[in-house]
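Recall the central idea of this unit: under ordinary conditions, the amino acid sequence of a chain determines the structure it adopts. In this exercise we apply that idea directly, starting from the sequence alone.
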Amino acid sequence: MVDSVLFDLDGTLWDATPGVTRTWNKALSDLGFKKVCTLDEVRRYMGMTLDKICSSMLGDEDPEMVGRLFEAIAGGENEGITLEGASLFPEERETLALLARRYRLFIVSNCGRGYIEHFLDLFELGTYFTDLECFGGTGLPKGENIKIVCRRNALASPVYVGDTEGDRLAALHAGVPFIHAAYGFGEVASPDHAIYDLRQLPTVLEKI
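Accordingly, the structure predicted from this sequence is:
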């Protein structure tokens, strides 16, 4: 029986791509690049760590320039999201409240430090979550951070909910069952379970 739920963030608990896109394009422009990211491109990058995103966007550019882009993006995403807005999924607050009555809830993301906290503060959802971890906090990949959160909180039977193949592989690495948030940004070949609306999660958890 499931005792806890660990969530990915982007594409699983919110859509912040308008603000993220604004931040990435401003950083690229400020550094003299002509490249312009679209919303769809940003969604395809979601789930990767920021260092890999910057390397992918710039290709064979000088590592120093990749590092400068990393710093510019990491320092501006929260402001960009505040300016452009972000959205929750339908009846998310009510669903989280329902889940929190029965399960301990956590967030594990490949984002930078402060990004999860900004999500929680912006929508006043902190009361529903016990703990969080991210790439920016540990420098470790998502699978290792899932392990850290499970150990730190003595979780006996957790599941991980995410929207990309990278999320599935991270859960597999951590030895945690994976639920694909199929309403999100990515496709997954063979998830353990799938939901097509966040509101389906309580019912799926009861069957695991």
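The mean pLDDT is 92.
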